[in-house]
Amino acid sequence: MSQQTGALLALRNEATLNRAVVFLHGFIGSRDDTWATFPNLLGAEISDWNIFTLGYATTLLPDLVGIWSADPDLPILAELFRSELIIPPLDRHGSVAIVAHSMGGLVAQKALVDNPEFDRRISHLVLFGTPSNGLIKAGLAKLWKRQLRNMARGGKFIQDLRADWIKRFGDIPPFRLTVVAGSNDQFVPPESSLCPFDHSVCRVVPGDHLQIVKPEGRGAESFRLLYSVLRSRPTPKETTTPLRLAAELGASAAEVVPARLAVPLTMKALVDSALALERDGERDGAMALLTDTLKDHPNWTDAIGALGGRVKRIWLEQHGRDDAHRAAWLYQRALDIARAGETEAHDQIYYHAINVAFFHFVVFDDAGHAREMAELALRHCGQAPDAYWKTATQAEAHLYLGEKDKALALYKAAVDQAPERWMLISSGVQAGEIAMKLGDQTLAGELEAIFTPGSRQASKIFVGYSHRDSAWLERFQKFILPYLKVENAELELWTDTETEADGRWSARLTEALNSSGVAVIFVSADFLASDFIMSHELPSIMKAGADGTMRLLWVYLSPAAIDAVNLDRFQAAHDISRPLSSLEPHEQDQVLLDIARKVKAAALGAVPRFLPGAPNERRHRGSMQ
């Protein structure tokens, strides 16, 4: 049965095993949806390795609020990863195999170059689609978003990482290194994933950036590759074929000729085929299909818009002005055709109009034309049937008109329609670009709260204590408050006098627990002697901690009957063999500072469980026999 410890999920954790595989997730996605069934498939085939997956916060909106309520940057994630390796349950494993995807590979490399003591413990490092040489596409919001800034090609983080790696390991690290590229990965090019390393460790498997870590079964090349690596067997021959490696590394020996689909008979079939190609990592093929078909059907507005959308994605990745002009021209062309038709297609008009507005506002500095297009889009939204894109279009239009309150209310209404994740990402990224253009940090924070609500919820830290221990709380606050001020977080303070205020304590307690990612309780004889704490507060906190919906840390202030409440099931924030009351004042200060840092790290690890689409942690995950 799987076990959860903060951001670490144990799919197998047997005390008799000394080897562990740790899966680290990538840039877009969480611990669970990145790898899908990969860890379970591996566990079904090998029984002599414990298996863990590790999560951390990654969202897509620009990073404008602090580290508590947004994504931590890569050096901090590397430090969190190091911490996981040296505390239970990973600390007892003599051999650890790290399997990382995308950004997770950068986190792993940073942790290894900074910590030589891991040389004897890390047995394998397998990097799937990792931008080890950086990303040009990290230009998307790179000025505001720390993780993207770290991944930018030519940036300080990437340059230092490559220099430190060569200095520490050269071409032959002390562990078995395998770097893997996807044959259709258009997010991380092979010159970034493969070229920084010796060709002898390079492998290529079929699929795009996400498909390579979602094997459909034991026969998938990515699964067979990882299985062979862990079993110290030769890797599948097809992953090292000269033609495939040559194609990925840019050698002239291989020439890739994408297969062309037959021209569909309807506009909808054409657009569906193009989108399917892009989902399979064939963006160039999708654009070629649309371009070729539009030669015969130049008035198919949906197809023109689909082509514009593909070009817009390139602009979002690289911010090239030529791409912006081409995308805007395509949307304007489709808009003109739709408006000239005998019967106005309202959904086509508002879709193209709002995209024309986007480029004129964000790229061409023409706010006046953007407002005209926004007003046009709103008129036609009023005559179109309800749909997610209609509501999102109305929200965006009100941003251009300077009506932020209306826009935010409509974005909330759109999210409440429970659209597919890619639809949320598309709307959120476009709204984030508008906020960046405006330079409006408040707006960006409000958008973040709508599209990634967990980042705000996880910034709340529930603190439970007895009113008789208020002096300890005041001392703790002196150490935690500097982090709170810098990172826009807040404490949710609860004491046993809450019931004296009014009769709504039960509802307020539930609300406070549901909106917090971490709970810290100050345990003493007075704390455990409180009827309110023992009857209501502590059972609720311990249930949330046991369910995995909250990270629970506890501080041992003074001797108390902790064995009576089974607190030993949860992580203590310090060495409980020495309660704080038994220490000298300067020792107490040091422990309180260490606790503040641990609370900060725990808050970062709590963010993923609040993100849209994250699985309910209370559900039982699939166990491995």
How would you characterize the overall build of this protein?
The protein is globular and about 85 Å long. The model is unreliable at 1-6, 59-71, 137-148, 240-265 and 607-625 (pLDDT under 50). By secondary structure, the protein is of the alpha/beta class. The protein has three domains: 3-249, Alpha/Beta hydrolase fold, catalytic domain (Rossmann fold, 3-Layer(aba) Sandwich); 267-448, Serine Threonine Protein Phosphatase 5, Tetratricopeptide repeat, CATH 1.25.40; 455-610, Rossmann fold. 46% of the residues are buried. Helices cover 49% and strands 11% of the residues. α21 (470-487) links the parallel β9 and β10.
CA-CA gap between termini: 8 Å
> Please, what is the CATH homologous superfamily of the largest domain?
Alpha/Beta hydrolase fold, catalytic domain
What's the CATH class of the largest domain, please?
Alpha Beta
- Percent helix range: 40-55%
By DSSP, the count of extended strands is 13
**Residue fraction in strands:** 5-15%
Radius of gyration: 27 Å
* Strand order of the biggest β-sheet: 1-2-4-3-5-6-7-8
Helical/strand content category: alpha/beta
Give the tally of structural domains. 3
| CATH architectural group of the largest domain | 3-Layer(aba) Sandwich
